[in-house]
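Tutorial, part two.
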Amino acid sequence: MSSSKPTPFNEQQVAEYERRRYRGLDQRLVHWRETRILSRWLKDLAGKSDFPGLCLDAPCGYGRFSQLILASGFNLISADLSFSMVQRARKRGFNGHFPIGIVINLLAAFPFADRCFDLVLALRFFHHLHSTEERQHVLAEIGRVTRRWAIVSFYRKQPLHELQRKLRRRLRPSATRISMLPLATFSRETALAGFRLKKISALWPGLHAQHFALLEKIE
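Running the prediction step on this input gives:
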């Protein structure tokens, strides 16, 4: 597995990223749709967990979903490679809940005991993993620390979205590479990690490559 990892955000970069990331109309629509899908799934899972369930949000980023997770009835641990991201997520997650944050590298072993979470969220992360080995490691660690459930997002191969990204790169070059997977590949890799694919939802069917996947651990 590659040992390379991105340089963590500092406090100033986190503030700038939070200010700019979902400012455009298209990204506001993406945020709205992500929130809608996640809210529905979290409420459903909260009713299936021993209340209150414990959720790991990793990578948590600046805590975009912290309040939503807490409002759904879960207790929350926020984790990210960036200390400044974790600190921001803890502030956003303060809601009568003692905000817990931890700095971890998701490409290494997770510093948690087996089966200690009711739910693990890994959103907007898998499209940055460009090898089967990396994805299998992360899926295996998620499977180790969750008792039953995980929600991950990935980019499914989508011709229209791929074309859109190619055109965007020509107009505005970017160093960011997005990994898009056939559904068969994603399904096979999750199964190898001991998960059953229970539900899948496209962000914008036919238009956007991002998909949310609800995974259930196979006992």
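The chain has a mean pLDDT of 89. In part three we will examine how such features are distributed along the chain.
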